[in-house]
Design a protein that fits this description.
eight-stranded mixed beta sheet; single chain; two-stranded antiparallel sheet; 30% strand
Length: 179
């Protein structure tokens, strides 16, 4: 069974975006970002929630079309209410369903990249479907916005698997989740 890996930029205070989805404080250049883009090449599948998919509209993604950033990946959007008139064959909308996600993990040929989405990440974590968390830690304090994990009700232990330091205080941290 393949893993779901939540690979996401975060502030020091645990936010993946600020108020109104503001990501202007996060770094988009440098060696840590190059590493992230290189790491994405290992994934054939990306999973995201509706809000993350629609966030891409402001960067030119058209409804029902795949995000160019993940052009080599099958793009799964987990949503119980998203529909498209015309949908590219590379884009698949799946219901927010535990069994559906388990089936996807069994059928995938590579690990699955979880793109953004604190709400979806919280749901996956609460249902013990998330396997690893890989954080591009930005040296910034955001204060409020979208948390790394929304809606979780208990504590989870993590095991540190990797800790890489980059210029300007950036880090990439890899953790497995101890269920």
């Amino acid at each position: 069974m393949k893993k779901i890996i939540y690979y996401v930029a975060s502030s020091i205070d645990g936010f993946i975006s600020g108020e109104n989805d503001d990501v202007s404080g996060f770094s988009y250049e440098g060696e840590a970002v190059k590493r992230y883009l290189e790491d994405l090449k290992a994934f054939n599948h990306v999973m995201m929630g509706r809000k993350t998919y629609e966030f891409g509209y402001q960067f030119g993604v058209k409804p029902g079309e795949p995000s160019p950033t993940y052009a080599h990946m099958t793009q799964y959007i987990l949503s119980n209410n998203l529909e498209f008139e015309n949908k590219h064959e590379q884009v698949r909308v799946l219901p927010l369903d535990v069994e559906q996600v388990k089936r996807l993990k069994q059928e995938a040929d590579t690990d699955i990249y979880l793109c953004g989405g604190g709400q979806l990440a919280g749901w996956l974590l609460s249902n013990e479907l998330l396997d690893e968390v890989k954080i591009k830690l930005n040296p910034v304090i955001v204060g409020s916005g979208t948390k790394l994990f929304e809606g979780i009700k208990k504590n989870y232990g993590l095991t540190l698997l990797g800790d890489e330091k980059y210029e300007h205080g950036m880090k990439i941290l890899l953790y497995s989740i101890d269920y």
